[in-house]
Amino acid sequence: MKLFYSLNSPYARKARIIIHELGLAKHVEDVLVSLPADDKFRVINPLGKIPALILDDGSAIYDSPVICEYLDELGGGKFIPRATLFADAKGKWRALTLQALGDGLADAVVRRNQEMRLPEDRRSAELIARQTRAIEGSFAAIERAVPKFPEEPTIGELAILSAIGYLDLRVPEDGWRTRYPQLARWLAKISERPSVMATKPPPA
Ligand SMILES: N[C@@H](CCC(=O)N[C@@H](CS)C(=O)NCC(=O)O)C(=O)O
C-alpha cells in the first residue's frame, strides 16, 4: 500500500506513528505530497487532503481517523481499545473522542495560521478570535484529562501529541507549557518514544 503524506501534517503523523509502532513499514510505500494537491492526487482523494492511503487493490482510504483504524486493525489493534463504558477512562469512546479533540485542535491551529498569513487588512479578527478560543479551550480540556491518560497511548493521545507538535512548529512562541504544566510533562515523556521521535516534523 502507499501512504500519501507530508512531513508536517499532524493528521498524517498519527498514521506514521502507528505504522512505526506496529511494524507495518515494510508494507507501506511513503509518497510525499506537496500542497495544494494536483489533479492526479485528487483522483485519490477528491478533497485534495493528506493523508490518504491506497491499498494494493487500488482502493483509497481517507481521512486520518479511517486510515488509523485500518492500520491499527491490520497491525493487531493496539491503538483503538475495545468498547467499554466511557467513564472508565480506558475504552474506545474515550480514545476516539480524544482523537476528535486533538484533530480539532490541529484544525483550529491550521485555520488560524492561514488567516494570520493574509495581509492585515484582509484578516478577520473574529475568525482569529474564534480559533484562538477553540485552541485555548482544547488545551484546558487536555490539561484536565492528562492525569487519566493511560501509560500506553491510544489513538487519542497520538492525536494530541501530533496537534501540539504542529503548534510548536508553527507558533513556537506560544508559551503553552507554562499555562499547562501537566501536559508539558506528559508531552516531554511521550516524545522519547522512538515512533514519536522518528515522525517529528523538521524545523520550519
Ligand atoms: N480531517 C482530515 C484533515 C486533513 C488535512 O486537513 N490535511 C491538510 C494537511 S495538514 C491538507 O491536506 N490540506 C490541504 C487542503 O486543505 O487543501 C484528516 O484527518 O485527514
CATH top-level class of the largest domain: Mainly Alpha
The CATH topology of the largest domain is Glutathione S-transferase Yfyf (Class Pi), Chain A, domain 2
The end-to-end span amounts to 29 Å
Which sheet architecture does the biggest sheet show?
4 strands, mixed
- The main sheet orders its strands as 2-1-3-4
Rounded average pLDDT: 96
| Share of residues in strands | 5-15%
The low-confidence runs, each spanning 5 or more residues with pLDDT under 50, are none
Number of domains: 2
Report the total helices. Answer: 9
Tell me the layout of helices and strands.
Elements: E1 2-5, H1 10-21, E2 29-32, H2 39-44, E3 52-54, E4 60-61, H3 64-74, H4 92-116, H5 125-145, H6 155-170, H7 176-179, H8 181-190, H9 194-198
Helix pairs in contact: 1-3, 1-6, 4-5, 4-6
Glutathione binds at residues 9, 11, 35-36, 48-51, 63-64, 103.
Briefly characterize the structure.
The chain has 204 residues and is of the alpha+beta class. The protein folds into two domains: 2-74, Glutaredoxin; 86-197, Glutathione S-transferase Yfyf (Class Pi), Chain A, domain 2.
How does this model look, in words?
This protein has 204 residues and is of the alpha+beta class. It folds into two domains: 2-74, Glutaredoxin (3-Layer(aba) Sandwich); 86-197, Glutathione S-transferase Yfyf (Class Pi), Chain A, domain 2. It is 54% helix and 6% strand. A four-stranded mixed sheet has the order 2-1-3-4. β3 (52-54) and β4 form a beta hairpin. α1 packs across α6 (155-170) and α4 runs antiparallel to α5. The longest helix is centred in the middle third of the chain and has 25 residues, at 92-116. The structure holds glutathione.
